[in-house]
Amino acid sequence: KMDDDDDIPQLSSHTLAALQEFYLEQQQREGMKTSQGFNQYSIGSIEEDWQLSQFWYSDETASCLAKEAVLAAGKGGRIACVSVPSVYQKLKEQDSEDFSVCILEYDRRFSVYGEEFIFYDYNHPLDLPENLLPHSFDIVIADPPYLSEECLQKTAETIKYLTKGKILLCTGAVMEEEAAKHLGVKMCKFIPKHSRNLANEFRCYVNYASELD
């Protein structure tokens, strides 16, 4: 009688070894980053996790959006980054006293950023720490992880809770009507790019006079 386990594909010992080596290297890389005065704020210092629908902006786009956020927030302004870690990283790279910034993010790897990291799940849009006061941010920049009205609608609740008024939203061009409906934002001329090309056309939307037009 044949063994029942025979039809379950087994990874060869070679593949397993290669896989273990890969994970080990990844761990070492992560470890090195923290120990060697590595610039922990550079884009890509935390790698994309496609299962979380993560796609980092190109360096140029992240810089442009960070610059816009600083301008919009004004001196001493507070900026909230909702699911836009690459813009948060760019803002931190500036190491400026002129503004403060928080990152609301589902991916707990970003907790390396300490107190500025706030765990955020768009399915519970108002499940936020008590010290995040309503309407306490000069601008909220957000990039909902999924191109669905449900995701936008829930993220919109968070954005409206946090912002004093200004909103900078990055999402697919297909979401234009929903973005207007839920957040009163209009599409800008500026076209954000990702470090890997996405199939969906991506756009920025604002509800104030921005430099992105």
Automatic annotation (TrEMBL):
Q: Which domain of life does the protein's organism represent?
A: Eukaryota
UniProt KW keywords: Cytoplasm, Methyltransferase, Transferase
Q: Does the keyword Methyltransferase apply?
A: yes
Residue stretches spanning the membrane: none
Reaction(s) catalysed by this chain, per the record, are: L-lysyl-[protein] + 3 S-adenosyl-L-methionine = N(6),N(6),N(6)-trimethyl-L-lysyl-[protein] + 3 S-adenosyl-L-homocysteine + 3 H(+)
Q: What is this protein called?
A: EFMT1 methyltransferase
Cross-referenced SUPFAM superfamilies, in alphabetical order?
S-adenosyl-L-methionine-dependent methyltransferases
